[in-house]
Amino acid sequence: MPATLLHTPLHDRHVELGARMVPFAGWEMPVQYAGVIPEHRAVRTDAGVFDVSHMGELEVEGPHAHDLLQGTLSNDLDKLEPGQAQYTLLTNEDGGIIDDLIVYRLGAHSYLLVVNASNRENAYAWLKEREIPGSDVRDASEDCALLAVQGPRAIERLGLPPARPFTFAEASIDGVEVMVNRTGYTGEDGCELLCMSEDAVRLWDAVLERGAVPCGLGARDTLRLEVCYPLHGNDIGPETDAISAGLGWACALDKEFEGVDVLRRVKADGPERRLVAFVMEEKAIPRQGMRIDGGGEVTSGSHSPMLEIGIGMGYVPAAQAQPETELTIDVRGRPRRARVVKKPIYKRED
Amino acid sequence: MAAVESYPDDLKYHEEHDWARMEGDEAVLGITWFAADALGELVHFEAPEAGSTVTKDQSYGEVESVKAVSDVIAPLSGEVLEVNERVVDAPETVNEDPYGNGWLLRIRVADPAEADALLDAGSYRELLAQQ
Fold first, then answer.
1. Which pLDDT belongs to residue A237?
2. CA angle, corner A211, sides to A207 and A213, nearest 5?
3. What is the spatial distance between Cα A191 and Cα A180, in angstroms, rounded to a whole number?
4. Considering only CB atoms, which chain B residues are within 8 Å of A287?
5. Residue A38 belongs to a domain
6. What domain range includes position A296?
7. Which residues of A have a CB under 8 Å from any CB of B?
8. pLDDT-based confidence at A128, cuts 50/70/90?
9. Where are the domains positioned within chain B?
10. How close is the nearest chain B Cα to the Cα of A290, in Å?
């Protein structure tokens, strides 16, 4: 742990709002304001705003930027037009996941990668080492602030035009120039607003003025878990492969990238274990690290504010991975029943 | 809605943020406002069974919020007469009313002298002020 925690440009705003601040990936971040559960429900029913300025922004530019990224990222960059974004993985030579990230194609020869705060340095170093003539990798994180505005009314509250998921466009929100990315980590409609660091406070104030509820990392975690988005460091990491994690859809196995041969082999042989979602059948809350009978382990667990039961994800032997399979989880010495479910765990009833 | 911070004068307190209300040879147990606030909204109470015994200074159950788990420490020893099923069904009751509807257990006190070692409200407030 660094002796001093980093602050986002919105740190003082969080403290003024009475947020509970916690260390996260070297940053001091708000875990909650009013409470995880009301914040979670605000995002499911209306709109919430998260300061995610701790995340990293890497710019990759040059006539060979495409070649560099096509050879290091798992998804097929050829499918991406300027103005579009894609979920993808940065993989190591063993097919493990260095980071999961979203790549934005800014132009023919210009890309933006939004990476996890905890992996920013690793991802930057990995790409920098592999730079080829005609490609330049730059860490632009300190210039940028990022606000996620999420929820069924998020776009309407921001006064933005409709747009398809995984697209982006420039816009002005109450006088602040932003890049509006139609992406998120909650399973709801909404966007992520990228702006210059010096504009972050004005943008935050404008978004709150428009009625978005300030939300912390606590709600961000329960929201993503309900919709089974993996968290790097919990559910995926350098020791886990994308196929076992159910992320094969983000891997173009017909192209060459680091570790692709391993992934092809796992896919052909079938993974020995799989990342599954489960719900508790008894009153208990699963937590990361708990053992699952049969050799499995919980990688993420919490209480679901929408379903009001314990939910989680974890790796289990492939034979236990089918939906409806009964699992037994060791909750601090007490065996508790759970059931494998199809992802996502929570889906809006339309 | 979460309750406002308070530490009633008629209760006895344990330094692990638990309270006891003496009622003859019985006692009602719970966790303090400070404990409930530190955890955040409770979503689970892992309760002991009626008829089991609890031992002073030892854990008799767990309370959990979305983010955290905490042992609940017995301020007194005794036999569990009743578990507050309202809290089992709606754990957030503890945040809303920690000394009223949010009680956790009713016990038959094994040794009333144990209560003498507990803190009064003033001493407990002093303890919190030092933290």
1. 98
2. 85
3. 6
4. 69
5. yes
6. 272-350
7. 31-32, 35-37, 218, 222, 283-285, 287, 302-303, 305, 308, 310, 332, 334
8. very high
9. 16-130
10. 13
Contacts of A222 in chain B (CB under 8 A): 66
Provide the token pair at A112: 């933006």
- CATH number of the structural domain B16-130: 2.40.50.100
Query: For the segment A54-68, what is each residue's pLDDT rounded down to a tens digit?
Result: 999 999 999 999 999
Residue A2 has pLDDT above 70, yes or no: no
Rounded to whole angstroms, how far apart are CA atoms B119 and B116?
8
Instruction: Choose among B4, B9, B16: nearest CA to B128.
Output: B16
Tens digits of per-residue pLDDT, A214-234? 999 999 999 999 999 999 999
Beta bridge partners of B106: B28, B82
Identify the domain boundary among A195, A226, A257: A226
Please say whether the beta carbons of A27 and A8 come within 8 A.
yes
Task: For chain B, positions 34-73, list CB contacts with chain A under 8 A.
Answer: 40-41, 43-44, 46, 62, 64-67, 69
3-state per-residue secondary structure call for A75-137: CCHHHCCCCEEEEEEEECCCCEEEEEEEEEEEECCEEEEEECHHHHHHHHHHHHHCCCCCCEE
Specify which residues A6 forms β-bridges with: A27
CATH number at residue A345: 2.40.30.110
- Encode pLDDT of B68-120 as tens digits: 999 999 999 999 999 999 999 999 999 999 999 999 999 999 999 999 999 99
CB contact under 8 A, A303 and B2: no
User: Which pair of structure tokens corresponds to residue B63?
Assistant: 């309370």
Say what the pLDDT of residue B2 is. Answer: 84
CB pair distance less than 8 Å for B66 and A287:
no
pLDDT level of residue A3 (50, 70, 90 thresholds): low
Given an 8 Å threshold on Cβ–Cβ distance, is B41 in contact with A287? no
CA nearest to A103, candidates A77, A141, A123, A129: A77
Six-digit token string for A132: 């080829």
Residues 6+ apart with CB under 8 A from A163: A169, A180, A182
What is the tens place of the pLDDT at every residue in A129-149?
A: 999 999 999 999 999 999 999
Contacts of A249 (CB under 8 A, 6+ apart): none
Residue where a domain stops, chosen among A191, A226, A261: A226
Q: Which of A218, A283, A284 sits opposite B66 (nearest CB)?
A: A218
In a domain, A233, yes or no: no
Quote the longest CA-to-CA distance of chain A. 58
Q: What's the complex ipTM?
A: 0.90
